[in-house]
Amino acid sequence: MTVTAGLLFPLVLLGLLLAMERVERPLRTDSVAEDVAGFLDTARPEEIEAFISEGLGPALDRYWKRRRLARLLPGRSR
Prior knowledge:
The protein is mainly α. It has one domain. The protein is 79% helix and 0% strand. It has helices at residues 2-24, 31-42, 45-54, 56-72. Helix 3 packs antiparallel against helix 4. The longest helix is centred in the first third of the chain and has 23 residues, at 2-24.
């Protein structure tokens, strides 16, 4: 029984390593830097103020809500 477990352990470990590599691959991209650059290029002053006072998460939430609203109401000006 222990011989089987000893032979199976490296295969299980290899499987876990491959799974973790698949999980980590998207996290290695610079998408956060691109999101921040895009946000800073098109954000309104109140969104920049939220970015400074509350952090990136709440500021991006406001930004994306405004973008969705603008998409739903195409005649509305920025």
